[in-house]
Specification:
CATH class of the largest domain: Alpha Beta
Number of domains: 3
Strand content: 15-25%
Structural class: alpha/beta
Order of helices and strands: EEHEHEHEEHEEEEEEEHHHHHHHEHHH
Shape: globular
CATH superfamily of the largest domain: Spore Coat Polysaccharide Biosynthesis Protein SpsA, Chain A
């Protein structure tokens, strides 16, 4: 193992990012030794702003293919390793420091560093939704991006899981129809969708409330038997969402249970089942599934995680179930556990006051 300071190329593709690009590039100051920005057709001030940070601003004619644009950006990098970001991403100050430290003392046998991608937060700033992405890769490996939409970087070799987080900030100017339009064009041209394409096409249909078409694509995806396990699990949840929107509770339940075919139960699906039985007035069954959610070991997964299901939510719902069963001591116990995670949550505080009244607990005793 050889450790040394490495040089990093930051590679990005941008288009009409005048409101976010400076924020992103300021957040990674001092990290990249080279910044390669590929513009795919901006008509705002994006290019003018980018020129304040780098002279390596390149043009790429947009061909409805994100992988092609990213591969073009990567092909113009010259440093030891390549870091990639989107214009609406940032590194928080603590994560920037971690990456700077990693850069200065880097194990050069590493080919890939993946990082948590923080996608959603609650009102207190706690992460509610995240997944992992390969972010820093050895340039000499010539890793390639694959997929016109929802592209992924195909990697191999020595891969390291880091705790350096990339934070997605988002922007109000997102083109919500762009990806669906690309898929529809490909479909019209007769392209055969890969299992991954089927899954992400279904996601776009679901987002656009085309529930019947989304169901068709998710089922076609699962039928291939070739999907990534995390996508298989996610597809089951999204199928359940579609059937819930269509009012088909039987199918909603069927695909919630089907997720167990692909991996041991996840807290997200246990909470789905708990909610189903709670709503049906079957409180003992609700207790079973919410309690199981609290007992599961969080997997070391690259897939999406809903943090609430692994922390406070099942305890809050156990409080409700136990209250309905007349087991107020247990209800109070689980509400207090939820309060450790969410001390200012209005529902938790309401439950606390309500149960203290029933149990005749004085505030000084809590």
């Amino acid at each position: 193992m050889e450790s040394k300071e490495i040089k990093i190329s930051l590679c990005m593709i941008v288009r009409n990012e005048e409101t976010t690009i400076a924020r992103c590039l300021n957040s990674v100051r001092d990290i990249p030794d080279e910044i390669v920005i590929v513009d795919t057709g901006s008509i705002d001030r994006t290019k003018e702003i980018v020129k304040q940070f780098t002279d390596k601003l390149l043009e790429f004619t947009w061909i409805d293919d994100f992988a092609a644009a990213r591969n073009f950006a990567f092909s113009n990098a010259t440093m030891d390793y390549i870091l990639w970001l989107d214009a609406d991403d940032i590194l928080a100050d603590s994560d920037r420091e971690k990456l700077l430290n990693l850069k200065k003392n880097f194990d050069t046998s590493i080919d890939v560093v993946n990082m948590p991608y923080l996608l959603a937060f609650d009102q207190h700033g706690a992460v509610t939704f995240s997944l992992r992405r390969n972010r820093l890769v050895k340039r000499s490996k010539n890793f390639q991006w694959i997929g016109a939409v929802h592209e992924y970087l195909e990697v191999y070799g020595h891969v390291v899981n880091s705790d350096i987080c990339v934070t997605h900030k988002g922007t109000a100017s997102d083109d919500s129809d762009r990806n669906l339009k690309i898929y529809e064009k490909q479909k019209a041209r007769g392209k055969t969708f890969s299992p991954r394409d089927l899954y992400y096409y279904a996601n776009e249909l679901l987002e656009h409330q085309c529930y019947d078409q989304a169901i068709e694509s998710y089922l076609e995806f699962l039928k291939t038997g070739q999907g990534w396990v995390e996508d298989n699990i996610s597809a089951c949840g999204k199928l359940a969402d579609c059937f819930q929107k269509l009012g088909d509770k039987e199918k909603q339940l069927e695909y919630t249970f089907k997720s167990f075919e692909y991996a041991p139960p996840r807290a997200e699906f246990c909470c789905r089942l708990g909610f189903h039985f709670l709503g049906a007035g079957q409180y003992e069954q609700g207790v079973f599934w919410y309690k199981l959610a609290t007992q599961l070991e969080k997997p070391n997964s690259w897939g999406p995680m809903i943090e609430a299901c692994w922390t406070w939510l099942p305890h809050l719902q156990l409080c409700v179930c136990y209250d309905r069963l007349g087991k107020h001591e247990l209800a109070y116990k689980h509400n207090e556990i939820a309060r450790k995670y969410r001390p200012d949550n209005s529902q938790v505080l309401y439950n606390k006051k309500y149960l203290e009244g029933i149990l005749e607990i004085k505030p000084s005793e809590t």
